[in-house]
Design brief:
The protein is built from 8 helices and 21 strands. With about 350 residues, it is an alpha+beta fold. Bound molecules: adenosine-5'-diphosphate and magnesium ion (MG).
C-alpha cells in the first residue's frame, strides 16, 4: 500500500483558498520533497497529512487506510503512526536528550528504549550528548535531537517541515546527509517540505513542485531540472537568461545560434530560456575593439564558478546581454572577444 495518498485535497483559510486540489502519492520508503516558494501552501498540506488540520475537501490515506474524509472521519495526529519534525521543533526542556528521544518509544520494552535512542542519536552525531539538557545545546544540536525523536519509533511516514532551515550552511549539509542516511536505513517514507531547490534535489527520490496551491510538476530531480514543463519550473531552479523569438523553419534564431523548435508551428512567438551554464565561452584572438563580435562585459569570480556578463552578437546582427556561468576561475578582460557555444540540453523553449 502507499505510505501516503492525498486525493483532491483543498483547503481554505477564511476566504483564502491556499490548497487548490492536490493529488500526491508516496510509496513505502520513498522520499518526496514538496518544494515551492514561501506561502504556496506546503506547510498547510503537510499539516493536513499529519492530522493537524481537519480535511475540508478531498481524502487522505495512510498505509492504505482512509484516515480523513471531510465531515466523516478524522484520525488524530497521535494515532497516525507518523513522525513529525519542524523548522524549530521544541524539545521538552525538563527532559535530557536521551529522555526526549525515548519519550516516543513507549511501545518498546523499557530495556530496549535506551539502546534504540542511543543508536539514533549516534547516527545523527549526538552520541556524546545523551545526558545533556536542551538549553545546553546549540540550535543545530537541538534540531538533531528533534529528528532523532521523530525517527526513533520508526514511523511508516515521516513528515518534515523545513527541518534544516534554521541551521547555518555548513552544519546544514552534514545534518541533511546524516538524516537522509537514517531515512534510507529505516526505510521510512518521507514527505519533506522545503523552499530550497538544492535541498530538494539532494534529499528527494521525487520532487513535487508547488506554486500557488497547486502542484506544477512531479518527477525525479533530473526530470524537473532537465525536462521542465513550464517557465516557472526552469526559473525555480536558478537564474536563467530569457529571450523572445519567433519560430522560422522549425528553429528560433538567437544571438547565440539557432535553437530547435520543430514541434512548434512557424511564426509562433516563443520564450527562449538559456541557463547560464549553457553558454560555453572560448576567447578569440581578435583586436579587443572588435565590438561587432561577441565580447565580455564583466567577469567576477564567485568561488566555485565565475560569472561572466557578456554581449552576444548573432550572425544576423541580433544582440543580447547574457549571463554565463563557468566552472572554476575564469576571468577574461572586459572587451575580450569570444566565441559562444551553446549546450542545447540547458536551453528550453516555451510558446
Ligand atoms: P508555505 O508553507 O508554502 O510557506 P503555508 O501553507 O504556510 O505556505 O501558507 C499558505 C497560505 O496560507 C499563506 O498565504 C498563509 O498566510 C496562509 N495561512 C497559513 N496558515 C494559516 C492560518 N492558520 N490562518 C490563516 N491563513 C493561513
Ligand atoms: Mg511553510
Amino acid at each position: 500500500a502507499l505510505a501516503l495518498s492525498l486525493r483532491g485535497v483543498q483547503h481554505t483559510f477564511a476566504a483564502n483558498k491556499v490548497v487548490k486540489g492536490i493529488d500526491l502519492d508516496i510509496a513505502p520508503g520513498e522520499v518526496v520533497c514538496l518544494l515551492g516558494p514561501s506561502g504556496c501552501g506546503k506547510t498547510t498540506l503537510l499539516r493536513i497529512a499529519a492530522g493537524l488540520e481537519v480535511v475540508q475537501e478531498g481524502a487522505v490515506s495512510l498505509d492504505g487506510q482512509a484516515i480523513a474524509k471531510p465531515g466523516k472521519r478524522h484520525v488524530p495526529p497521535e494515532k497516525r503512526n507518523v513522525g513529525l519534525a519542524f523548522q524549530d521543533s521544541a524539545l521538552f526542556p525538563h527532559l535530557s536528550v536521551l529522555e526526549n528521544v525515548t519519550f516516543g518509544l513507549k511501545q518498546l520494552p523499557s530495556g530496549q528504549r535506551r539502546a534504540r535512542a542511543i543508536e539514533l542519536l549516534g547516527q545523527l552525531g549526538m552520541a556524546d550528548y545523551v545526558d545533556t539538557y536542551p538549553h545546553m545545546l546549540s540550535g543545530g544540536q537541538q534540531q538533531r535531537v528533534a529528528l532523532a525523536r521523530a525517527l526513533a519509533p520508526t514511523p511508516k511516514l515521516m513528515l518534515l517541515d523545513e527541518p534544516f532551515s534554521s541551521l547555518d550552511a555548513r552544519l546544514r549539509d552534514r545534518i541533511r546527509d546524516d538524516t537522509l542516511h537514517v531515512l534510507k536505513k529505516l526505510g521510512s517514507a518521507t514527505l519533506l517540505v522545503t523552499h530550497d531547490p538544492e535541498e530538494a534535489m539532494f534529499m528527494a527520490d521525487r520532487i513535487a513542485l508547488m506554486r500557488d496551491g497547486k502542484i506544477v510538476q512531479t518527477g525525479t530531480p533530473r526530470e524537473l531540472y532537465c525536462t521542465p514543463i513550464d517557465p516557472f519550473v526552469v526559473t525555480f531552479f536558478g537564474e536563467v537568461n530569457e529571450l523572445e523569438g519567433v519560430v522560422k523553419g522549425g528553429v528560433v534564431q538567437t544571438p547565440v545560434g539557432a535553437v530547435d523548435a520543430s514541434w512548434l508551428p512557424d511564426d509562433s512567438d516563443v520564450q527562449v530560456m538559456i541557463r547560464p551554464e549553457a553558454l560555453r565561452i572560448k576567447e578569440r584572438d581578435l583586436p579587443s575593439d572588435a565590438h561587432d563580435h561577441s565580447h565580455v562585459v564583466m567577469a567576477k569570480l564567485l568561488g566555485r564558478s565565475s560569472l561572466i556578463h557578456l554581449c552576444a552578437h548573432g550572425e544576423d546582427g541580433q544582440e543580447a546581454h547574457l549571463h554565463a556561468r563557468v566552472p572554476g576561475v575564469f576571468l577574461p578582460q572586459e572587451g575580450q572577444p569570444i566565441d559562444i557555444d551553446l549546450d542545447h540540453s540547458q536551453v528550453f523553449i516555451f510558446p
